[in-house]
Design brief:
The structure is a single chain. The protein has nine helices and seven strands; from the N terminus they run E-H-H-E-E-E-H-E-H-E-E-H-H-H-H-H. By secondary structure, the protein is an alpha/beta fold. It folds into two domains: 149 residues, SPOUT methyltransferase, trefoil knot domain (Alpha/beta knot, 3-Layer(aba) Sandwich), CATH 3.40.1280; 57 residues, no CATH class. Helix 4 links the parallel strand 5 and strand 6. The longest helix has 19 residues. It binds S-adenosylmethionine. S-adenosylmethionine (SAM) binds next to strand 5.
């Protein structure tokens, strides 16, 4: 999906009232390493720098009354206009936005420059919506500020860029990327408090391991997130696995599953003493 045709780093501009909350996040672990390697670039912008008053006040009370303070539209306008390069996307973080998911992460990972605008207090003046390319929520809950939401988006998008997490295969099998939840993983010790590791994973049969993992991913998705199945691109073999997992044959289509492959029966050589099989023509009314 991410074609690797990008020439430069993926650039994130983070606009916030609390840049120091996000700074260490952009400097540590895989993100920090990707910055050093030139794969990612971050810049932090303090909205207060664009307050336009000597008190660095960015908010005001809401028209119509009510609790809390609202971030002014002119502050956000100046902060965006001051970005040295205009971003491909300006994303407003708000619980009222479109819910962030893996598909959106994949779409954003194709861009070169994303600006993420983090709110606080009661949020933004509604006119800020006209300054952005999309409004995004990270889930159906309300946090105190947009910084954690921005961090969430950066984490999910950055890891899709070639080289950021090293081995790209590690995200292709991940929950949601494959269309299914991820299969269960195990590592040493082989025995822990009476719980072992499935035998198939300890043998060297790679085809059997691949099939086992796919079947377990199907099993997990079926029990935890059946809503994902219709768009998971299921194969006839997946359908057979679902039937083995107890799904009623007649319900496969509703899960977006194609018909399973015909069951292969072993051909037995007819003994010379056995009569040859004759196929009878159907009689009227014989079909139900
Ligand atoms: C307390 S919230 C404002 C909530 C707003 N009054 C509402 O009910 O939609 C302050 C800021 O936190 C951020 N925020 C909180 N929850 C979020 C979520 N689920 N997704 C994205 N941003 C969120 C937004 O940037 C928001 O402007």
């Amino acid at each position: 999906m991410i074609d690797g045709a990008h020439t430069g780093p993926l650039h994130f501009s983070l606009l916030t009232l609390f840049p120091e909350l996000l700074r260490p996040f952009t400097q540590e672990a895989l993100l920090g390493r990707a910055v050093t390697a030139g794969l990612l670039k971050f810049d932090l912008h303090d909205l207060r720098e664009h307050a336009g008053n000597r008190w660095r006040k960015v908010d005001d009370s809401p028209y119509g009354g009510g609790a809390g303070m609202v971030i002014r539209v002119d502050v956000v306008e100046r902060a965006l206009a001051a970005l040295p390069v205009q971003p491909d996307e300006i994303i407003l973080l708000t619980p009222a936005g479109k819910k962030f998911d893996q598909k959106m992460a994949e779409e954003l990972a194709e861009k070169n420059h994303l600006a993420l605008v983090c709110g606080r207090y009661e949020g933004f003046d509604a006119r800020v919506e006209s300054l952005v390319t999309r409004e995004v929520s990270v889930g159906d809950y309300v946090m105190m500020g947009g910084e954690a939401a921005a961090a969430c988006i950066v984490e999910a998008v950055a890891r899709l860029r070639p080289g950021v997490i090293g081995d790209e295969r590690s995200w292709q099998d991940d929950s949601y990327s494959s269309g299914l939840l991820d299969y269960p993983e195990y590592t040493r010790p082989a025995q822990w408090q009476g719980q072992g590791v499935p035998e198939v994973l300890q043998g060297g049969n790679h085809a059997a391991i691949t099939r086992w993992r796919r079947d377990r991913a199907l099993e997990r998705t079926l029990s935890r997130r059946p809503d994902l199945l219709p768009s998971a691109g299921l194969t006839p073999h997946d359908s057979a696995a679902l039937v083995d997992l107890g799904v009623d044959f007649g319900k496969l289509a509703a899960l977006g599953a194609p018909p399973p492959p015909p069951v292969k029966t072993k051909r037995r050589k007819r003994k010379p003493s056995e009569p040859a099989l004759t196929i009878q023509a159907p009689t009227d009314g014989g079909e139900q």
